[in-house]
Amino acid sequence: MTVSKRLLAPGTKQLIEALGNPLGREAFIELGSQTRAGADCAGRLWDFLIGEGLLNEVRDTEQPTGHAEVFGAWRSQRGMLADYHRTATFAKAIAAQGAESAIDVGTGSGILALFCASAGMKTIYALESTDILSDAAAIAAANGYTDRITYVQGDASGFSCEQPVDLVLGEWSGMWLFEEWRHFDAFARVRDRCLKPGGAVLPSRARVFLSPIEDSNLYVERGPGFWERPVWGFDFSLVHTQQWDRTRRIIVRANPRSILRPLELLDLDCRTQDSEAFFFERAFDLAFNHAWTCHGFLGWFVLELAPGVEIDTSPASIDTHWHQSYFPMEQLQIVAGDRLDLKVRSVKDPLTGSPVIDIQVAQELKPLVLPLL
Q: Which of 46, 128, 315, 336 has the fewest CB atoms within 10 Å, i.e. is most exposed?
C-alpha cells in the first residue's frame, strides 16, 4: 500500500507564516503576487481559511502569533529575570515613585507588579495577553499579594479601569527598542485612558543611538568579512556576495572602543508620544579628520525610568540581555577629509506594520590635489 504524502507548494510557506501577524486581505494577496504562489492562490487560501473559521478578526495592536510562544514561556521570562541590571533598576525606579496605584502593561512573569506591591501600592492591575498570566497570579498568591494585584488577560490596548491610576509602567523594550512597538502602542493607549492627570509613566523617556564603528574582529567573526578570506583553504566569495542581498542585524556584545560617532536617532517622550514616533527619517553629514575603516554600524538605547535612574545598553555600560545591534556593511576605507552622508529611515512593513530599518551610506571622497608641473 502506497501512502500519499504532501508538501506545501513553493511560496505557500511564506504566505502561511505571514498570517502570524495582523493582516488584511489586500495585503495578503499582494504578498502572494510577490511569491511563486501567486495572487490567485493567496486569495483562494484567504477565503478558505475565513470560511473554515481559522482566521480571527483582531485589532492592529494584537501581537503576532509567535509572541505568545516566546514571551508566554518561562525560558524567555527567565532570561529577563536573570538580567540583574535590568531588573534591579526597574525595582529601584518603582520604589522611588511613591504611587498608590499602578497598571503593569504586559506583566509577563509578574515581577514588576510584585515590585509595585512590595513598594506599598494598594491597587495594581497586571495586564498580559499570554497564558503565563495564570502562573504570575499563582506566584503573587504564594507571596501574599493576591488582595493587591488584579490580573487581566487579553489585549491591553482595550483595557480601562473605573479609577485612574498614579502610575502606568511596562517593560516594552525590544532589541534596539523597536521590536516591541505593539507593546508600546498598548502602553500608550492605557496611559492615555487610565493615567491620572499629573501621573507618572515608567519608562518616562527612551533614546535610540547609532554609530559607525571600526572593528575588524567583529566584521570577521560575526559579519560578512568571514567570507572574504579562504575558508579552510577554499574560495567562498560567492557567499560573501549573497550576504549583501539579505543583510540582517546581529545581536552582539561590542567593544566600546569601536564606536566612532554616536548619533541620536530617536528621543521618545513616553509621557506623551505614541508608536508613530517609532517611524522616522534622519540624515547626518559626518566629517572625519583621520583615516579609519568603517565596518558597519552599532545601535543601542537608553531608558530613563525615573529621575536619575536609567538603563544604558551601550557597550560602555553594564551588559544587559539586550546587548547591542550590529548592522554589517561592506567595509569602507576612509581617509582624513572624507565625509559620510548617512540616511536612516524607520518605515512600516506594508504587510505587518512593524518597523523596518533602512540605512543608506554614501562616501564623499577627499578631493584629489595634484601638484603643479
A: 336
Q: Count of CB atoms within 10 A of residue 366's CB? A: 12
Average pLDDT for consecutive 10-residue bins of the chain (373 residues)? 68 74 75 76 78 70 54 79 95 96 96 97 95 94 94 92 96 91 93 97 97 95 89 89 74 95 96 94 92 94 96 96 93 90 88 82 63 41
C-alpha angle 320-75-153 in degrees, rounded to nearest 5: 100
Q: What is the pLDDT of residue 88?
A: 97
The DSSP bridge pattern shows strands 101-105 and 165-169 to be parallel
Strand-pair partners of 150: 125
Give the per-residue pLDDT at 62.
61
β-strand partners of 205: 269, 304
Which uninterrupted H or E stretch holds 359?
strand 355-364
- How far apart CA 47 and CA 141 sit, in angstroms, is 45
Q: What are the C-alpha distances in Å from 87 to residues 110, 123, 244? A: 12, 21, 37
- What distances in angstroms separate CA 266 from CA 206, 234, 277, one per listed residue? 8, 44, 8
Q: Strands (DSSP E) along 71-204, which ranges?
A: 101-105, 123-128, 149-153, 165-169, 195-202
User: CA 229 to CA 226: how far, in whole Å?
Assistant: 7
CB neighbourhood size of 84 (10 A):
11
Global pTM value: 0.82
φ/ψ of residue 366, rounded to 5: -65, 135
Q: CA separation (Å) from 49 to 42, 54, 210?
A: 11, 5, 42
Compute CA 52 distance to the chain's CA centroid, rounded to the nearest angstrom. 34
User: Left if phi > 0, otherwise alpha if psi is -120 to 50, otherwise beta: which for 73?
Assistant: beta
The three cell numbers locating residue 173: 523594550
What span, in angstroms and rounded, lies between the C-alpha atoms of 117 and 144?
10
